[in-house]
Design goal:
Blueprint: H1 13-21, H2 86-99, H3 103-112, H4 116-123, H5 141-151, H6 156-170, H7 180-189, H8 201-212, H9 216-226, H10 231-249, H11 266-283, H12 304-314, H13 331-359, E1 370-375, H14 380-390, E2 398-403, H15 413-426, E3 434-437, E4 442-445, H16 454-468, H17 479-485, H18 506-510, H19 514-525, H20 530-534, E5 539-544, E6 547-552, H21 567-579, H22 584-598, H23 608-616, H24 623-629, E7 631-633, H25 640-650, H26 654-665, E8 681-684, E9 694-696, E10 701-704, H27 710-722
Parallel strand pairs: 1-2, 7-8, 8-10
Antiparallel strand pairs: 3-4, 5-6, 9-10
Helix pairs in contact: 1-6, 2-5, 3-6, 4-7, 6-8, 7-9, 8-11, 9-11, 10-11, 14-16, 16-22, 17-23, 26-27
Amino acid sequence: GLERGAKNQFSTFSNFITTINQKKEGAGNRSPPTQLVIPNIKNVRDLPPICLDVRQKQRVSVDTLPQELKAPIPPQPSLPIRTKTVKDFQDDVEKAKSSGDWKAIHDFYSTSFDSFLEINAAFKKDANFPFNTIEDSGINAKFVNVVYDALLNTPQDVQKSVLKGIINGLLQEWKGPRTKDDLRAYCILLQNPQFSNTSTYVIYAHLLRQIAALTEADHHFLVHWSKKIAQRRFKQLVDRLLQFISLRLFPAKPEEFPPMMKCTWWIPSATKVLALFNAANSLSSPSIISYTDFYNSTLDHIDLMEEYHNWQCYGNSHRFSFCQYPFIISIAAKKVIIQRDSEQQMISIARQSLVDKVSRRQKPDMNMLFLNVKVRRTHLVSDSLDELARKRADLKKKLKVTFVGEAGLDMGGLTKEWFLLLIRQIFHPDYGMFTYHKDSHCHWFSSFKCDNYSEFRLVGALMGLAVYNSITLDIRFPPCCYKKLLSPPIVPCDHNTLVGICDVTLEDLIQVMPELAHGLSELLAYEGNVEEDFYSTFQVFQEEFGVIKSYNLKPNGEKIPVTNQNRKEYVQLYVDFLLNKSIYKQFAAFYYGFHSVCASYALLLLRPEEVEILVCGSPELDMSALQRSTQYEGYQKTDLTIRYFWDVVLGFSLDLQKKLLHFATGSDRVPVGGMADLNFKISKSETSTNWLPVAHTCFNQLCLPPYKNKKELKQKLIIGISNAEGFGLE
């Protein structure tokens, strides 16, 4: 980055603008580069904000700028001819390094970044070709990368000349819509590595503000051009924007930046530009980087509920809220929002129950503050179904479970046991509600028709209760299930509106029925005569209770042959039938069950993948984190048995580590808050060392006998976790 010190004090912004606007002397008689490049941020006069909300597309008018900040209007000549190649530039750099004479490099940088016109002249593939399509930005990406990679290793006057040119370009008066050359210049400037340094943030902020204020059509081009940026550099751009937002929120040295009240547009501008990269990432298949790379963990430390309430009250109006851009909010922060929102709903409903009771002059009962579920173990599903149906108005209260005929208070263990037992029973193949696909290791809804779909509603309500009460479920649904669950994320007021229907593709089917999806892929790729060789029609067959039934994919489908011309339509209709139409009533009941508990605007913040993590936990295991957060009962963490245990577990394969987690907690996934949220405990078992370890999954507790050596502990532990199906209830 740029060196800072007493000998490199920076001038005020207005003085620097004066320097920019002075006519240049001849290139051969260049005076030493000015030291007055980066503004003294404390003395900066900010350009006026575009608008209260960066999403309103307005261009900066030069008439709104103070007189001293107006730059002269340059003529609009055609692009200058620049012939320097990547090899020429690299040769010049090597010569400068060996000779110490950086004049040629200084001239190149100061000229190339002097204006948007010069940026295009230097980095456009062909100066005479317009490159007006979204497919090709016309940017010589290799040259841009080489020039930027070399920049931070050049002398300070070279780096300052680049920033000087950027400010010159940003202060240019704009008349009419931006050209594609302007968009190209913005795309190139965003990649400047100098903007990782906080001393350049004022310049960076103005660049982001101008990009954020472009029209939707211009953003459309920038999004598609950004898809072509290499993965590593794309990630660097995203990280730079996230860092800018974080340091503006929580500056390490507040004196480095203007007061927040004078630059309230910094964060909205940066977030809007980040949204363009998120859009580019979402449009790419596969995505360039993970959606989690857009999370800004700094936001975990701000008042999230204020952000959420602002968003609820003002929606997408003038008032900025991070909830307008949920991709930047981490799953941990979203969980906090959902939990607090659900707690507020719980409190509100409990308070209303209390008021109703008092108004009728009845004695208040503490049980009225909870959703009390009483079930018999022998009639678990039917009792649970009856209780949840009867107490539908109480679903948003805190859950408490009682097993009839058993003494015990529900401190969380009984609730978790109820979920575990109920899920295991409902998803058992003999129950017939769900089909387990071995190839994909997931469950899918049975397409069998029935008179009552209330049990599917029960499963949806169970998932909602799990999210609402922060319980992780051992459920294996494919990703498209959660996509359907958010279609739409808010239950429509019109009950005739279809729910749980979403666009599905062959990629979605692969995650459920990979073998069938593979067959359909081969049909699409078949080079022969599809009609003659496959002899198929737009009709499919399914077995239901031993009877083969046929279904038309379109009207008169049994009479329409599948051909080379219409096979894509056939595959799309087949996938839609399997994942949407054939299970509509089952999934609609499931959808309404889930939303009967989790109805909240907070669901609008979630991606389908995030709903899955909230329900089932994360598959990412960190056993070292589990070791750090484990509690002990009867043992000390320095005891020999405990040291043996962690030596063995940390040396396990991922598969064995998952089996251990499943054995001890009932699920091989980790809660959103990480291993610490498991509250994992190892207790000393006062039994013979011939016994295997025992787990109490309701309490995430492992009972470990004091084995005498590591070999014996490893042997017994592997046997225990590998043969742990079913419950041994005392």
